[in-house]
Amino acid sequence: xRARRRGGVPPIVTVLITISAVVAAGLxxxxxxxxxxxxxxxxMLEVTGAYALCSGTSCSAVYVxxxxxxxxxVTITGAALEVAKGPTFNSSSNLNIAVxxxxxxxxxxxxxxxxxxxxxxxxxxxxxTVKPSGGTSAYTISLAFKIARP
Length: 150
Hints:
Distance between the termini: 103 Å
CATH architecture of the largest domain: Sandwich
Helix content: 10-25%
Strand content: 35-45%
Number of helices: 1
Largest sheet: 4 strands, antiparallel
Radius of gyration: 28 Å
């Protein structure tokens, strides 16, 4: 007696596998789209200029220019400056400076204490508390740069 051969895969199984593959591909595409679009719509800040206003060995202020080169508007809500070899500076936590896409903001810091001398080319770190437009929560970023003393 000959063995009876059955047909291949039933058509319903083929349809279910095809539908599952299409749904899986759609989920992968959605995941890639949402993560990429969220990452590309972030603000990105850079320090474009920083100089100390000095007379002799006494400096009265440090001016820092921050530029938004990212893909979203941002609001600066707080700022603090720390200089490697120099005085301490006032920090502000009640700022409300809007920096639009492609725009810039100028920040002024005054030295505190008896030592106010700042060397040319000294390293500094600017810590900003920022809130992206349309965002609900603020976060902190730190930018490293050098201060020029004209």
